[in-house]
């Protein structure tokens, strides 16, 4: 995660954090490159420090079908496969099928039992009413609820 020092106009970048997250970084005497998730960023040297250009120099992005699914907001697989031919630089490195837990959870519905819990067998056996209350102070008879 880049960090801007309060008195600096530059952003500091942690090589250790990037490599810990799977990035590959190569340094030469005057420049470098950072490869992360199919994207390459240039690193240039200014004095004794190296600086990371925040824009990618790569015109391609390579991800698995599952990664593209997440990047594109859980788009369906067939549309992602169609996009590869339409979008310049979009590479799907692994087209194997997968199950997305987020999509499965998002499509779950709650089913309700439609049979009534209790059935009336004679008049006034079951009464449904709407009550208002509790009312404070209670009425003259001490009742706190009334029928609506
Ligand atoms: Zn999904």
Automatic annotation (TrEMBL):
This is CCHC-type zinc finger, nucleic acid binding protein a. InterPro entries: GAG-pre-integrase_dom. Pfam families: gag_pre-integrs (PF13976). It comes from the Eukaryota. It comes from Elysia marginata. Residues 49-108 form the GAG-pre-integrase domain.
């Amino acid at each position: 995660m880049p960090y801007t020092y309060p008195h600096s106009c530059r952003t500091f970048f942690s090589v250790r954090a990037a490599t810990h997250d799977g990035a590959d970084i190569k340094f030469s005497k005057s420049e470098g490159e950072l490869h992360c998730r199919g994207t390459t960023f240039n690193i240039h040297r200014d004095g004794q420090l190296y600086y990371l250009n925040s824009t990618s120099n790569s015109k391609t992005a390579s991800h698995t079908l599952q990664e593209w699914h997440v990047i594109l907001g859980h788009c369906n697989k067939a549309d992602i496969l169609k996009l590869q031919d339409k979008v310049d630089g979009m590479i799907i490195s692994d087209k194997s099928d997968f199950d997305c837990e987020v999509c499965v959870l998002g499509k779950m519905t709650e089913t309700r039992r439609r049979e009534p819990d209790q059935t009336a067998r004679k008049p006034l056996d079951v009464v449904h009413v709407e009550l208002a209350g509790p009312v404070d102070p209670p009425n003259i008879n001490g009742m706190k609820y009334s029928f609506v």
